[in-house]
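We were asked to recover a plausible sequence for a given structure. The inputs and outputs are reproduced exactly as logged, with field labels preserved.

PROBLEM: sequence recovery
POSITIONS: 483
GIVEN STRUCTURE:
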């Protein structure tokens, strides 16, 4: 028994001694190990140990997921549902429409809009309210009658006004600061599903997809893969802070529904247009007095241009800003006020922020040599002041008439004319006229003033002779008998 206890005691003491030896000589810290290794191996060990975690990794902290909750809460209350009622005005129909059962029948289309001021100004798309006889805005289950403040086909932007106070105006962001790859959400009412939010990223900027109307279409779209569907038009594209960065406008689709590509008007352009429509009733477009095209590899090779960035001047307007500054056909514009011009999208967007009378510095290439010019931008009539264009809208004619601007007069070789800039069912369409026709004379008398022309046509009966220019640039002369 004594021997057994003695053996157990000796074994225990031996174990303690062995553990001490193991700890002292064999178990070493990374630092002590590295001190006994070659320099290259020691540096590798030190690098690894210095970045080794000292506590379990918290994946939610090291790579936090994107949350759209705050952005949604901030923006959904500022997006409204819009109803466009049309087709009920009896003055747009003839007795033949009634005879063949094509009389007035109400049509309703829908879209979205964004509240930009607490006193009731709302931005939407022009195509959302196009042809409307009555417009309703629904916000938080309350319905308002809306007044149309103004429209701009060149950007597909329109402004409405409702009589209300204390509305939740959306916070404005900056589309110029928006980065490709940045998360965004689209807020709107697709398929009449109100207050719907979808998420995606900014896929591209300065996109041109050739869908806009107007005399001077301005396309520099934000492209996003956030799902946008019919009914989203006019709604908000916002960043993760809930700030407005664009107005959702279009989808690229063969089916009529979302297939991966959505487009929004940059907020910096949309709100400049809205501001002009509210203050002046007309967008104050600043023009350099040129026509330009994108540089393609084929053009670059033909003209021996060493860059694909910029735009090529194809025409200089007589007595325009560019002519006064010495620019010529074939010059390549590379910068405007130090902002690089990569193509037509960036060229048009760069100009869109200025007003007539503003002076800009233009960098350009002529035969490969860098040059600089100072331009004083002009309005559409060739002046430098605020412009209020003359127009006349008539339900009986079913059209909006405007005086032809200086750019079109130069392009068409005209001294005057009245242009049809919008047309619906009515008198002029029955005569075979279409959007874009320019009337230069009526019964051999010059057509200059839209209001005079409109009232004359509303009251006229007898033999009517119209002369002018068709939308394709071809002259036309047509006689009618009007009863």
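RECOVERED SEQUENCE:
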């Amino acid at each position: 028994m004594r021997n057994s206890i003695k053996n157990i005691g000796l074994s225990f003491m031996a174990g303690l001694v062995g553990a001490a030896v193991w700890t002292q000589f064999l178990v070493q810290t990374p630092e002590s190990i590295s001190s006994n290794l070659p320099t290259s191996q020691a540096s590798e060990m030190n690098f690894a140990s210095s970045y080794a975690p000292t506590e379990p990794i918290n994946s939610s902290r090291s790579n936090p997921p994107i949350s759209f909750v705050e952005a949604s809460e901030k923006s959904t209350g500022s997006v409204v549902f819009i109803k466009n009622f049309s087709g009920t005005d009896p003055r747009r129909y003839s007795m033949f429409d009634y005879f063949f059962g094509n009389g007035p029948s109400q049509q309703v289309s829908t879209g979205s809009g964004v509240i930009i001021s607490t006193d009731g100004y709302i931005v939407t798309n022009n195509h959302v309210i196009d042809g409307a006889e009555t417009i309703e805005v629904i916000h938080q289950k309350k319905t308002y009658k809306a007044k149309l403040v103004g429209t701009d086909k060149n950007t597909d932007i329109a402004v409405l006004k409702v009589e209300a106070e204390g509305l939740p105006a959306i916070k404005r962001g900056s589309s110029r600061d928006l980065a490709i790859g940045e998360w965004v959400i689209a807020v709107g009412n697709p398929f009449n599903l109100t207050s719907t939010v979808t998420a995606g990223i900014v896929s591209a900027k300065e996109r041109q997809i050739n869908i806009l109307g107007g005399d001077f279409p301005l396309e520099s779209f934000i492209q996003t893969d956030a799902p946008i569907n019919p009914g989203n038009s006019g709604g908000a594209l916002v960043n993760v802070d809930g700030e407005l960065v664009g107005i959702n406008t279009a989808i690229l689709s063969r089916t009529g529904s979302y297939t991966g590509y959505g487009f929004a008007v940059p907020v910096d352009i949309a709100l400049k247009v809205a501001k002009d429509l509210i203050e002046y009733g007309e967008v104050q477009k600043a023009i350099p007095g040129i026509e330009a095209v994108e540089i393609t590899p084929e053009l670059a090779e033909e003209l021996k241009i060493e860059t694909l960035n910029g735009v090529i001047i194809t025409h200089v307007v007589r007595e325009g800003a560019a002519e006064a500054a010495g620019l010529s056909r074939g010059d390549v514009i590379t910068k405007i006020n130090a902002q690089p011009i990569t193509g037509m999208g960036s060229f048009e967007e760069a100009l869109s922020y200025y007003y007539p009378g503003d002076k800009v510095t233009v960098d350009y290439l002529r035969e490969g040599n860098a040059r600089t010019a100072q331009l004083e931008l002009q309005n559409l009539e060739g002046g430098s002041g605020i412009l209020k264009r003359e127009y006349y809208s008539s339900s009986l004619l079913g059209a909006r008439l405007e005086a032809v601007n200086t750019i079109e007069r130069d392009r068409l070789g005209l001294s005057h004319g009245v242009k049809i800039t919008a047309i619906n069912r009515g008198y002029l369409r029955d005569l075979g006229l279409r959007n874009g026709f320019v009337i230069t004379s009526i019964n051999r008398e010059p057509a200059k003033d839209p209001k005079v022309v409109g009232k004359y046509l509303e009251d006229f009966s007898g033999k009517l002779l119209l002369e002018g220019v068709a939308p394709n640039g071809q002259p036309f002369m047509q006689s009618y008998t009007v009863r």
